[in-house]
Amino acid sequence: MNILFRIVIIVSYCFLYSVSLSCAVESRESIRQSLEEKSIDVAHIDQKRLKHLSEDEKKWYNKFQNGLVFFSGWKDISEDILACVEPEEQNKTKELLETLGIRIGTEWSKDNTIRRIDTEQLQNWGDMLREARNNGPTYLSAALEELSQEVDSILSQPHKTTHR
Fold first, then answer.
1. How confident is residue 5, by pLDDT bands cut at 50, 70 and 90?
2. How far apart are CA 121 and CA 129, in angstroms?
3. Over the chain, what is the mean pLDDT?
4. What residues contact 139, with CB distance under 8 A and at least 6 apart?
5. Three-state DSSP class for residue 115
6. CB 101, CB 74: distance < 8 Å
7. Which of 63, 92, 122, 164 is 20 to 30 A from 29 (CA-CA)?
8. E strands along the chain, which residues?
9. Across-strand partners of 21?
10. What is the rounded distance in angstroms from the CA atom of residue 159 to the CA atom of residue 24?
11. 84 close to 137: Cβ distance less than 8 angstroms
12. What is the spatial distance between Cα 12 and Cα 131, in angstroms, rounded to a whole number?
């Protein structure tokens, strides 16, 4: 009886593992398709954003992209992420990271009184991406999708207005 019980447990475990693995593969495929659609839709608009930055905004945008003494820039963060992505996903992930970098950086570089993305959000997103990277490619894809959706939501809101 004890051996039969163990066999049932092992077979059940193998079945559940295979089901969860197939769900993860399906989920990853749907995330990949969503990422592809978003990077294609916004790429042209995002390039236009760069052309409209003031000189001061360009300075802050470059700091965002290249980093500061104690903070990694978006380019370094993107390279770390790409190193953890499977080769067949790297081009699409690179496009998404470039798009996110432009969208986040151009908004963060604006004057503090009107920008919709602040430094605390950057730090939180950086922590989220580092944790996802450490947990593997599936988590990383999900984190990038979540970040992309959050940025979409933030940028669809009107700019802050401050009364002086």
1. very low
2. 12
3. 78
4. 131, 132, 133
5. coil
6. yes
7. 122
8. 67-68, 71-72
9. none
10. 38
11. yes
12. 31
CB-based contact 94:86 (threshold 8 Å): no
Q: CA dist 77 to 66, 80, 83, 139, Å? A: 10, 5, 10, 16
The pLDDT tens digits of the residues spanning 52-95 come to 899 999 999 999 999 988 888 999 999 999 999 989 989 999 99
Tokens at 6, concatenated:
């163990």
Query: Which pTM value belongs to this model?
Result: 0.69
Question: Could you give the CA distance from residue 156 to residue 150 in angstroms, rounded to a whole number?
Answer: 10
Q: What are phi and psi of 158, to 5 degrees?
A: -70, 155
20 within 8 A of 133, measured Cβ to Cβ: no
| Cβ-based neighbour number of residue 83 at 10 Å | 9
Alpha-helix runs per DSSP H in 52-89: 55-66, 74-83
Supply 129's token pair: 């991406």
Report the amino acid identity of residue 30: S
Structure confidence at residue 156 (pLDDT): 94
Q: Enter the tokens of residue 148.
A: 């992309």
